[in-house]
Specification:
Helices cover 36% and strands 24% of the residues. By secondary structure, the protein is α/β, with parallel strands linked by helices.
């Protein structure tokens, strides 16, 4: 972080973006040539060999047909990466041949990174991502464009994000302050009582380091359990001073703040919520707008970085695609945790300083890629495509916490039956899109005799804490009362199957 903080932001975001769009295919080819084909043992090199495709063939296809068309052809020939193959340790098999790999096999060897970030998945070791200063500076070009689109420099900003081990609030504070904005308050939703001492010390050290560089970053202020009224009250005080506010949070947190304002009769009209991490459904957007506020989303992952931001003309779960950094194609496939067929998004890194080199990589999200109809600042900058109706079909993403679905399955099918009773098929975790927040419903078959729903809920959270990344998830879900245990038979798929982890998706019922 030290090198990043002392490196100036991009002087002209326009030239950064225009150069990236003009040279996206050349950048992709050069990155693959140096980062993949130069290593005979790289998993992608072996996939290309099995597909009968050399670098010359790839270059010819991209120059002739375009990047996305070439990627579609490569996917049909077996050059792609499954989410569990990257994060879950699942063996890669193509054309009957096993290809050895680890998550680190896909790290970009061309990047000289200075900051390590570990994704929020639940694997014992997580996925370490090395983020270079060049990558962070490039991302700032998107945020400068975002400042222009929403006139963000004329607003004060509030972070309503967990403290460490989540680094989201710290990164967002650093970036916005570096770009000339102000951050007046950081409300932590993770709970002081459950926060470890070393995380508190580390968070305070980050604040002090920012201030050393002249960035007026606030220390985290912990909210009372399951109470978002202090955020709404803070917005009201700023409005009384004639200051408009922008709130950075997860989607569910934005809804909770808006509902707290409505319940207490607090006027927060004009506030702007900048969200991400989970699906912005129509129902959640309506709840936020009922308080006289606006809400917009963004799409990013630790491994890929920013994928796209919403503009002021967009509603719902829709973002402009950052084509200078990523290429996206879709593939129809059955969703393992819902039984439905979805258009899975496959991502390919274009930027030479991306933390990983991905070619047709699934992250278990689905959506629709299409031309963007608006004429906003993003479209004028060249981002003329959008991804809409994005939601996850293979992992839990409720309230900004991400856990890999296959790991939660072990808790539901093995651990809870051993600790509480019953067997596989008697426990089902349903991720519901409710009006106020994304909620997890733990359904326990009436066949299982247990002492109380509270005891089962505590047992479940206790097991989630043992997963990598589960400590923060359990803290946030406990703080927001985001897990509800009910005695009920699990839902069935249309084919009559019981899925232990049942992701309904936005707009779907039970």
């Amino acid at each position: 972080m030290y090198e990043y903080l002392r490196t100036p932001p991009p002087a002209r975001w326009e030239s950064v973006i225009q150069e990236g769009l003009a040279n996206r295919e050349s950048r992709f080819l050069e990155t693959v040539r140096l980062g993949v084909f130069a290593n005979p043992e790289h998993p992608y090199t072996k996939m290309f060999r099995l597909a009968g495709c050399g670098y010359g063939d790839l270059e010819e296809a991209v120059r002739r047909d375009g990047l996305e068309a070439a990627l579609q052809a490569l996917h049909r020939q077996g050059v792609w990466l499954g989410h569990n193959e990257f994060k879950g340790g699942e063996t890669i098999v193509r054309s009957g041949e096993r290809i050895a790999s680890t998550a680190n096999s896909f790290a970009n060897p061309l990047v000289k990174g200075k900051t390590d970030s570990i994704s929020g998945g639940s694997r014992s070791k997580g996925t370490r991502t090395r983020i270079s200063t060049a990558q962070r500076i490039h991302e700032e070009a998107y945020h400068l464009l975002n400042n222009l689109e929403f006139d963000l420099l004329n607003r004060c900003h509030i972070m309503v994000r967990p403290s460490l081990p989540s680094t989201t609030a710290i990164s967002q504070c650093f970036r916005h302050l570096r770009l000339g904005g102000r951050v007046d308050e950081w409300f932590s939703v993770s709970g002081l009582r459950d926060e470890s001492l070393h995380h508190r010390i580390a968070a305070n050290s980050c604040v002090l380091m920012a201030r050393r560089f002249g960035l007026a970053m606030p220390f985290p202020r912990h909210l009372p359990p399951n109470d978002f009224a202090p955020v709404a009250e803070w917005i009201v005080r700023r409005h009384s001073e004639g200051i408009d506010c922008a709130v950075w949070s997860s989607v569910s947190t934005a809804v909770r703040v808006a509902e707290a304002a409505l319940e207490k009769g607090l006027d927060i009209q004009g506030a702007l919520f900048l969200t991400g991490d989970e699906t912005l459904t129509a129902a959640k957007r309506v709840r936020v707008e009922a308080a006289g506020t606006r809400i917009y989303t963004r799409y990013a992952t630790t491994e890929l970085g920013p994928i796209g931001f919403a503009c002021s003309q967009m509603k719902g779960n829709c973002v402009h695609l950052f084509r200078d950094s990523v290429a996206v194609i879709t593939h129809r496939r059955p969703a393992p945790l819902s039984g439905a067929e979805v258009s899975s998004l496959l991502f390919t890194t274009v930027s030479p300083w991306a933390p990983h080199i991905f070619i047709n990589a699934e992250i278990d999200d689905c959506g629709v890629v299409e031309p963007a109809p608006c004429k906003c600042a993003f479209a004028r900058a060249g981002f003329t495509e959008q991804i809409r109706d994005v939601y996850s079909f293979g992992k839990l993403t409720g309230q900004g916490m991400t856990l890999v679905g296959t790991d939660v399955l072990r808790v539901l099918e093995e651990v809870l039956p051993a600790r509480v009773g019953g067997g596989p098929g008697d426990y089902q975790l349903v991720e519901r899109e409710e009006k106020s927040q994304t909620k997890l419903e733990l359904r326990v078959s009436p066949r299982v005799k247990f002492s109380s729903t509270k005891a089962v809920g505590e047992c479940f959270l206790d097991e989630i804490r043992k997963l990598y990344g589960g400590t923060l998830a359990a803290r946030v879900w406990k703080y927001t009362e985001g897990v509800e245990v009910v005695s009920a038979e699990p839902f069935l798929t249309p084919a009559g199957k019981v899925l232990s982890l049942h992701l309904l998706g936005p707009g779907q019922g039970s």
